[in-house]
């Protein structure tokens, strides 16, 4: 049996995190969830995400700053930014997933990520 790829979810809403975990599990990913950037950064030494779904509006370190750190630390990680903000305000990422998140939209992005 091959190991499932890891998805990092950084989202401060418990409801959104639960929804993303369910979608990602269904698509064959194990999930490491963090409610803030600091928790995600603390885990960098022990995780290697294939995909990250990142909220921009986070307490503490911003999602925009975390996006830069993820791209530096995990250059092969497919970075999906998800937010209620205007897509034009999203930082550089591999994909945009405006909220509210729709499962079919996430599924399409994950298929793009695993090509």
UniProtKB/TrEMBL annotation:
**Gene Ontology MF term list:** DNA binding
Residues in domain Response regulatory? Answer: 6-114
Q: Which PROSITE patterns does this one have? A: RESPONSE_REGULATORY
**Where are residues bearing 4-aspartylphosphate located in the sequence?**
55
Q: Which Pfam families match?
A: Response_reg
The record ties this protein, via InterPro entries, to:
Bact_response_regulator (IPR050595), CheY-like_superfamily (IPR011006), Sig_transdc_resp-reg_receiver (IPR001789)
What is this protein's record name? Answer: DNA-binding response OmpR family regulator
Source taxonomy: Bacteria, Bacillati, Actinomycetota, Actinomycetes, Micrococcales
């Amino acid at each position: 049996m091959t190991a499932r790829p890891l998805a990092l979810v950084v989202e401060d809403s418990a409801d959104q995190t639960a929804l993303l975990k369910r979608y990602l599990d269904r698509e064959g990913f194990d999930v490491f969830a963090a409610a803030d950037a600091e928790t995600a950064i603390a885990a960098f030494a022990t995780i290697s995400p294939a995909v990250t779904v990142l909220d921009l509006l986070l307490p503490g370190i911003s999602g925009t700053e975390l996006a830069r750190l993820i791209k530096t630390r995990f250059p092969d990680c497919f970075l999906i930014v998800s937010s209620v903000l205007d897509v034009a305000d999203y930082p550089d990422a591999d994909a945009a997933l405006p909220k509210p998140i729709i499962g079919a939209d996430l599924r399409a992005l994950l298929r793009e990520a695993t090509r």
